[in-house]
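Today's session is about reading a structure prediction critically. Students often jump straight to the picture, but the first step is always the sequence itself: look for stretches that repeat, for charged clusters, for runs of hydrophobic residues. Only then move on to the predicted structure, which in these notes is written as discrete structure tokens rather than atom positions. Here is the chain we will use throughout the hour.
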Amino acid sequence: MELFNEAAEKYAEKFTSAQNEQLQQIYTQTNQLHPHAHMMSSSVQGQFLAFLSNIIRPKYVLEIGTFTGYSALCLAEGLIKQGELHTIELRAEDAATAQQNFSQSHWAKQIHLHIGNALDIIPTLPFEWDLVFIDADKTGYIQYYELVLPLLKKNGVIIADNVLFHGQVLEAPNKRKNAKAIHAFNEWVAKDARTQQVLLTVRDGLLLIKKQ
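Below is the predicted structure for this chain, in token form.
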């Protein structure tokens, strides 16, 4: 099952503020050259991330799953002058692409790229996060959530991507590993009295989670 409506996405893009020149370049290059370009946020989703970051004005942002750096640069748009964005990527090849993109950006000195397993890296980062974006392996979402929630400041926000997982979370019975993991994550968060949440049907689904 596929929930994504290309015509609706194009319509939404038409009435969404345009992304800057560098983001457009990364977006185009990734779509043209990367065999897994579908893993990147859409331009509308990217502008939503930038919009939310500009509202929050975070000092410390954590991203789990860098890919080619597009979403990190969107999230960096709201950073305060002394702010930092830390992003974690498991795959060295994607990390190299992302680092090149970061080095050419306005936020080059504020973005810090870590290569390796997020579960190992996150405990080494001595920050209280204002904003966290989870977009990595779907079977690890609950672990990432439980790891970062104690490190999230009060009223801090976690954004989890792909929480509709191509509509597969609606299938019954659900026999697909990633969709089952995402559904379990959605249920886990919904039952958590420590947070408030709202699930948005933007592209492949975004779960916005605020710490109480």
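Discussion point for the tutorial: The longest strand covers residues 152-161.
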